[in-house]
Amino acid sequence: MEEKELLKQILEKMTSMEKEISGLKEGQKEHTQLLKAIEHRVEVSDARLCRMEEDVTQIKGHITRITNHLLDHDTDIRLIKKMMSK
Predict the structure, then answer these.
(1) What is the pLDDT of residues 1-10, one digit of tens each?
(2) In degrees to the nearest 10, what's the CA dihedral of 69, 72, 76, 78?
(3) Which domain of life is it from (predicted)?
């Protein structure tokens, strides 16, 4: 094989490899963008979950206060009934 032909084949191979590498770099960029989008979504989801946990805690507090008020009213009603029955 002639030296010129060998150099041509080497050049063709290198050109092919450069195209492959370029394609791989583009794929890597796409994967990086997807990863960043997923990380952002996770952060948003975590923030929403945290807010929901705070809301649930607040609702539990409201329910506890309402339950206590109902128990107080129930006690008051029993006392009134007892006083009325005398």
Answers:
(1) 699 999 999 9
(2) 120
(3) Bacteria
The answer, as to whether pTM is greater than 0.70, is no
Domain limits at 21?
1-85
| Phi, psi torsion values for 2, nearest 5 degrees | -75, 150
Low-confidence ranges of the chain (pLDDT < 70): 1
Question: Whose structure tokens read 């290198």?
Answer: 14
Number of domains making up the chain? 1
In angstroms, the CA 80 to CA 68 distance is 18
Q: What is the dihedral of CA 69, 73, 78, 79, to 10 degrees?
A: 100
Report the C-alpha gap between 46 and 53 in whole angstroms: 10
Other Cβ atoms closer than 10 A to 25: 10
